[in-house]
Amino acid sequence: MSGNRGDLSSKIFNLDNWIMRFFSRIFDVVILNFAFIICCIPIITIGASLTAMYSITLKMVRNEESHIIRGFLKAFKQNFKQGTVIGMIAIIITFFITVDLRIIGIIGDDKFKVLQVLCYVLAIWAYIIFLYAFPLLAKFKNTTKEVFKNSFILSVINLKWTILLILLNIPFVLMLFYSGLSMFLLFTILIICGFSGLALIQSFIFGKVFEKYES
């Protein structure tokens, strides 16, 4: 009987056991999330940080990652310049769209309804393009111009996956606006594992999209 207990204990704490692998993966996601948040603190580095995070999660879905922090910092350094440029473009576009919508809302004139709709359309397309841009930069070597062009093309020809990627963000949006408690819960999740967790889920989709072009 004692021998059986020993066998059970060795199986539970065996690093190859699925339970241990599951908790190891959760730990990796939490560590990656903290690395991402810390490297986003200057704001202007959010693009490089996003690229580095996707570099790790794209490897995670294929079980190719090794050391999380070391791999993240290496990818952050390699993609710092290009990732920062693309990230700053995203920030600038978001800023101007937000300001325009705010001004239109303050004016409240029906004459600007068409402009308001155009702003929303631009916001959606910009979001979709940047949704692909950082994983694409993490996976392939492209010029900045090619990143935007290929992001647009991939988002269109893989429309079903693009729609699914957008739907994955809806629970976060609902939690943000539903109530104060849900907003607090959302921020708690984001701080612990939300960013990297979502990136990991998205990376399963990006992996399917990118595998056709890896050769």
Count of DSSP H/I helices: 10
Give the biggest sheet. Answer: none
Overall number of structural domains: 1
Structural class: mainly alpha
User: pLDDT under 50 segments (min length 5)?
Assistant: none
- Helical residue percent band: over 70%
Give me some keywords for this one.
mainly alpha; 215 residues
Task: Describe the protein in words.
This protein has 215 residues and is mostly helical. The protein has one domain (2-210). The protein has ten helices and no strands. The N and C termini lie far apart (55 Å). The model has no long low-confidence stretch (mean pLDDT 89). It holds the Pfam family DUF624.
List the helices and strands and how they pair.
Elements: H1 2-12, H2 18-40, H3 46-60, H4 68-78, H5 80-107, H6 113-139, H7 144-157, H8 159-167, H9 170-178, H10 180-210
Helix pairs in contact: 2-3, 2-10, 3-4, 3-5, 3-6, 3-10, 5-6, 6-7, 9-10
InterPro entries: DUF624
Protein name: DUF624 domain-containing protein
Transmembrane segments: 30-54, 84-108, 114-138, 159-178, 184-206
Summary, kept brief:
The protein has 215 residues and is mainly alpha-helical. 83% of the residues lie in helices and 0% in strands. The protein has helices at residues 2-12, 18-40, 46-60, 68-78, 80-107, 113-139, 144-157, 159-167, 170-178, 180-210.
